[in-house]
Design goal:
ABC transporter involved in vitamin B12 uptake, BtuC, mainly alpha, 77% helix, 13 helices
Length: 362
Amino acid sequence: MNIQKALASLLRDRTPQIKNLFVNYCLPPLLALSGFFLLCGIVLQIRRQSPLEFYSIIFVSAFSSLDDFGYVLFNATPLIFTGLAVAIAYKSGLFNIGCEGQLYVGAFAAAWIGIHLNLPGFLLIPLCIGSAVIAGAAWGAIPGFLKARYGAHEVINTIMMNFVAFALMNYLVTSVYQEPGQMIPQTPQIYEAAQLPRLASLFPILPPSNPLNLSFLFACGCAICCYIFLTYTRWGYELRLLGNAPDVAAYGGINPQTVTIWVMALSGAVAGLAGVAEVLGYRYRFLDNFSSGWGFTGIAVALLGRNNPFGILVAAVLFGLLNKVALDIEILLEIRRGLFLAGQGVLIIWLVCMEGVSRRKN
């Protein structure tokens, strides 16, 4: 009886906090998702197609087998990295739009090491991952330095750095490291020792053809590390304080210029890991224009996950599901993939609007 009273008292004391958590963090993304699926249903009604068939395809496409769900997690893997990268910068009051360029630079760095160094796997894989982290960090630190030193806005700088990365990678792949005898703009294959194993080799319940690989577990580990870093470390505290109260941070002795540089470098380093998932875990080479906009979709993933690492995990899986469903819907319902992606764009707009409303309330 005393235990029941204690639990009731605890719940009564925590009720305002739980309510505030739900209203500020859970309700906005739930409303945005509901609006997205409602909009899809309205469009289908206009086309005189069944919304129920659409919703059933979503469920069957993702959960009818472990193979299907493996593809969902495979699609979610790079989005976890880019979502975390966006969230790290956003927590400090910065907006990193350059994750797309940073993941390209990271992917090429990993491929370059994997092509040129013939070492045992326990050495080569960490070297590839480390090179991607360093390359992504360097690419992110450049707009961070320009912001800190000259006050140049990081949004403009990171967008421009994307174009520089695309052009530079295209030149390197097509003019310097093009695979001999191939018309496809891609590098030679990396050494086998640098290739991450597929999870099917570790968990036989997955079909051998399923592309889900060890990079997904790296992404989950990265989310846990980001949560610990942001919540329990001094650097995470400085980062969050700068984003929430820059004047208080400066008064407390925190150098905003220094924090801006290393935060953008850290954000770029995490984005570079999205390229590792592609090069070491799937194609085993660098392919020009391999990304389907993961760096930009990572913005929506971060917003939907409320910039919480664990929320980003859930949001990335959701977007991984939507990416898989888009192909199935095009085949089964004859709805162009572009129309479905346009709906995702509307979802992103709603998320941005709700984020702005939530920040004004707080």
